[in-house]
């Protein structure tokens, strides 16, 4: 009798378990460490864009929708053809790194849904690349102003993306391909410029060395003139006498003849 009462309860419990298991995906959801989420309340206020759900295990009503965003840094490569200032076609490879602002994923979803990369980021970056490179010549983009072009593209892209709650991390021009004829001409011109700079460096170095020698020679000549103008017969005789006195103090045997030399200076004779 008891078994007959318990059996229906067991059957109901089993059915309830499988029903709950089947709808668990509608009741529970997980947000990973590199994700954020927002909820759309169908029978409430709609998208709750200001309440961003943090990483962890969460529960919701089965009829509400959850939209999960990856908020880690993302890299995207783009290959495109652009025109330079003179209308010359250039093929460039661009790498752009970006990420959504985690606290603003609700606002991003409101404007672009989940596909903000293809709807916002890529079109704006490509547009900025075309506009900026159109202000420079192929030679400037290829050689002398490549860093400036990169910085300008990043700056202009960053303004638009940041206004739409996306952070621009970096933008790099990975490669630039020009028509062979133009590329060879630019490389030849750059080589000639480097040779001209090297030649000018050698000239400047030689001029500097010649100037150094001239200044040294003038200084030496002035020093000799000063010494010559300060010498006199009396001074020389006095210095000679002083030197004679110092030599006479040495233990070596010698003969000193005073006033016997041509200029009247002492003459020292010794056996060593």
From TrEMBL:
Membrane topology: Single-pass membrane protein
GO biological process: mitochondrion organization
Superkingdom of the organism of origin: Bacteria
Keywords, sorted A to Z: Membrane, Transmembrane, Transmembrane helix
Domain Band positions: 26-190
Transmembrane portions of the chain: 7-29
Keyword Membrane: yes
Record-given protein name: Prohibitin family protein
């Amino acid at each position: 009798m008891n078994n007959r009462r318990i059996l229906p309860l067991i059957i109901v419990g089993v059915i309830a378990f499988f029903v709950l298991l089947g709808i668990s995906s509608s009741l529970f959801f997980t947000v990973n460490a590199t994700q954020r989420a927002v909820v759309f309340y169908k029978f409430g206020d709609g998208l709750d864009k200001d309440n961003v759900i943090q990483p962890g295990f969460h529960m919701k009503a089965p009829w509400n929708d959850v939209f999960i965003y990856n908020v880690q840094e993302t890299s995207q490569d783009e290959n495109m053809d652009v025109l330079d200032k003179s209308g010359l076609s250039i093929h460039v490879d661009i790498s752009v790194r970006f990420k959504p602002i985690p606290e603003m994923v609700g606002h991003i979803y409101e404007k672009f849904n989940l596909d903000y990369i293809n709807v916002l980021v890529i079109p704006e970056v490509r547009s900025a690349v075309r506009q900026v490179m159109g202000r420079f010549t192929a030679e400037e983009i290829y050689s002398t102003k490549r860093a400036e072009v990169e910085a300008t593209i990043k700056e202009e892209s960053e303004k638009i993306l940041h206004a739409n709650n996306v952070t621009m991390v970096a933008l790099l021009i990975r490669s630039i391909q020009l028509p062979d004829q133009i590329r060879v001409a630019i490389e030849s011109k750059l080589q000639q410029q480097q040779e001209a700079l090297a030649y000018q460096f050698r000239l400047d170095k030689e001029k500097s060395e010649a100037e150094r020698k001239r200044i040294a020679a003038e200084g030496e000549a002035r020093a000799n003139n000063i010494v010559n103008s300060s010498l006199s017969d009396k001074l020389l005789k006095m210095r000679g006498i002083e030197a004679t006195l110092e030599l006479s103090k040495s233990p070596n045997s010698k003969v000193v003849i005073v006033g016997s030399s041509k200029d009247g200076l002492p003459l020292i004779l010794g056996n060593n």
